[in-house]
Amino acid sequence: MSGAERTEGKEAAAAGDPGRSLGPSDASPDEGVVEDLPLIDEKAVEQLAEGLISHYLPDLQRSKSALQELTQNQVVLLETLEQEISKFKECNSIVDIDALFSEAKHYHNKLVNIRNEMMTLHEKTSKLKKRALKLQQKRQKEELEREQQREKELEREKQLTAKPAKRT
Predict the structure, then answer these.
(1) Residue 148 has what DSSP assignment?
(2) Taking CA atoms, which of 38, 101, 108, 160 is between 20 and 30 Å from 85?
């Protein structure tokens, strides 16, 4: 193939000609790779792989253990966070309990005031009952004295009334 034919082939390929011919520069990059490589000894490949593994394995193992440690630390942190969250929830319930206790104290004070008022009312009613009893006794005594006074007056009037003399 001459240089002119190659140029024509490239132009045809650029134009999208389906019957075009490919030149050496149009070849696939992987084409002929296996043929180009010299034969590699499998023992050498194995030794190279072992060397590569032995070189990176300690770092990978350290990374693995570090990741495991981080994972464990994250688990511990998550548990700690859950405990703290439950403590905060308890604190909120404690606030509710404090509100209930203050409300209970308020109602206790009301009950104490009502009890004191009831005791005061009881004392007043007791005094009023005693006074009413004394007044009733005094009134009965006065009525009795008036009745006795009337009887005395009637008796006196009887004695003062003229009596006819007996004829003998």
Answers:
(1) H
(2) 101
Q: What is the pLDDT of residues 53-110, one digit of tens each?
A: 999 999 999 999 999 999 999 999 999 999 999 888 888 888 888 889 999 999 999 9
- Measure the N-to-C terminal CA separation of the chain; round to a whole number of Å: 207
- For residue 2, which phi and psi values (nearest 5 degrees)? -90, 170
What's the confidence (pLDDT) of residue 9? 47
φ, ψ for residue 4 (rounded to 5)?
-70, -40
Report field, pTM of the whole predicted structure over 0.70: no
CA distance 160 to 50: 160
CA 22 to chain centre: 76
Query: What does the block give as tokens for 108?
Result: 């206790």
22: left (phi over 0), alpha (psi -120 to 50) or beta: beta
Nearest-angstrom CA–CA distance, 54 and 43? 16
